[in-house]
């Protein structure tokens, strides 16, 4: 199995490993594998797979849609969503979103690191930034939406009675939802509007809280 320059640099220069050293690897599809370093240099190297160390573990079918905020907090959302078992991460532009672009490669690399840190074998895809309105235009209503609306702040939602199956959690930006978005989401089939408790949470905290509530009630916790 070939090693790219960044992987070879990490193993050889950062971890100071050489030929014969054993490491654990995963590709997001085939579980975790023990592998032996065959060669490692500045431009690349190679690994030999030895044996499967763990089976593939995919998360439940829950997506996280959120409006990107400041860089460090967006990084935090991607990292925590991966640890909490989001199957896909979709940054969305809403009426009050500030960000016009995201560093998708950097965010995807954060997802890989987070999966490595928590012993995962699955890496969620970080999708390109897309307008929420366009996503809703072509939404497959077979995937329900758990819409966190700060206007509902109060006793937290009980999700256990909701149907199982594919879901997407939707978290708004620092500026919250516009009246037009509230009207659109309120009229869309398969949308459940929920409270995340009596306090207004920052968007990054809200993403973590909503994923935890969903996983505990409908997911694999
Ligand atoms: N600027 C808004 C305000 O002052 O009311 C707050 C927006 S909040 C920082 C960002 C997002 O987190 C909201 O759009 C919502 O999706 C979610 N959120 C935060 N607290 C919530 C709560 N208690 N219940 C439901 N959603 C919440």
UniProtKB/TrEMBL annotation:
Principal location: cytoplasm
EC main group: transferase
Protein name per the record: Ribosomal RNA small subunit methyltransferase E
Localization: Cytoplasm
Cellular component, GO annotation: cytoplasm
S-adenosyl-L-methionine is among the record's keywords: yes
A Pfam cross-reference name: Methyltrans_RNA
Ribosomal RNA small subunit methyltransferase E PUA-like domain: residues covered: 6-43
Lineage top rank: taxon: Bacteria
One GO MF term: rRNA (uridine-N3-)-methyltransferase activity
Protein's organism: Paracoccus sanguinis
Similarity comment text for this entry: Belongs to the RNA methyltransferase RsmE family.
Keywords: Cytoplasm, Methyltransferase, rRNA processing, S-adenosyl-L-methionine, Transferase
């Amino acid at each position: 199995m070939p090693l790219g320059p960044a992987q070879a640099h990490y193993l050889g220069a950062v971890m100071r490993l050489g030929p014969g050293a054993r490491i654990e690897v995963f590709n997001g599809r085939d579980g975790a594998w023990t592998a032996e370093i065959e060669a490692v240099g500045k431009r690349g190297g190679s690994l030999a797979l030895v044996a499967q160390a763990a089976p593939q573990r995919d998360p439940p079918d829950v997506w996280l849609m959120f409006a990107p905020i400041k860089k460090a907090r967006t990084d935090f959302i991607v990292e925590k969503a991966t640890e909490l078992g989001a199957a896909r991460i979709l940054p969305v532009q809403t009426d009050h979103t500030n960000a016009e672009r995201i560093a998708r490669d950097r965010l995807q690399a954060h997802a890989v690191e987070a999966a490595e840190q928590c012993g995962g074998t699955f890496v969620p895809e970080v999708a390109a930034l897309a307008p929420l309105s366009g996503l809703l235009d072509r939404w497959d209503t077979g995937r329900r939406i758990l819409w966190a609306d700060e206007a509902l702040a109060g006793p937290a939602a009980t999700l256990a009675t909701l149907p199982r199956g594919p879901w997407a959690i939707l978290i708004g930006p620092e500026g919250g939802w516009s009246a037009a978005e509230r009207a659109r989401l309120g009229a869309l089939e398969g949308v459940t509007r929920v409270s995340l408790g009596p306090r207004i949470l920052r968007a990054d905290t809200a993403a973590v809280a909503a994923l935890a509530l969903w996983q505990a009630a409908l997911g694999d916790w």
